[in-house]
Amino acid sequence: LFVSCKSNNYQETDLHGSWKVVNWEIISSGQERNNQMDMSFEENGSYTVDYGSEKEVGEYWIANDFLHTTETDQAEKKVKILGLSQDTLSFQMNRGGELENVILVRSK
Q: 98: how many CB neighbours lie within 10 A of its CB?
């Protein structure tokens, strides 16, 4: 039996900075969401999500193809990274049993 460790395809340093949603879609229906979800990732491993009426703050890390977040005093969440480049972050998340694709662009 051989066990291998898969290395990260994405680097946390590529996340550093601020991101704004440009597309948020429910996969099963193709319906688009117009909700705010601005994200910021700091070099010290902290993150902030601004939903407009509330903010989420905690710690983040990348393992394999997943972005993990743990909001302060909450359970860990993870989303599957579909792509991460200099100016674009895309991921898939399961929200309330619905798979959704989110595309963000770097704002700073």
A: 12
CB 93 within 8 A of CB 100: yes
pTM above 0.90, yes or no: no
Mean local confidence (pLDDT), 47-57: 95
> What's residue 3's pLDDT?
45
Render the burial of 44-66: b for 16+ CB within 10 Å, e for the rest: eeebebbeeeeebebebbbeebe
Q: List all residues 6 or more positions away from 52 whose beta carbon is below 8 Å from its beta carbon.
A: 35, 36
CA distances from 64 to 5, 20, 28, 58 (A): 9, 23, 25, 20
Amino acid at 69: T
Which residues are CB-neighbours of 29 under 8 A, at least 6 positions away? none
Q: Give the number of residues written for the chain.
A: 108
pLDDT digits (tens, 9 = 90+) for 95-104: 888 999 999 9
H-helix or E-strand spanning residue 108: none
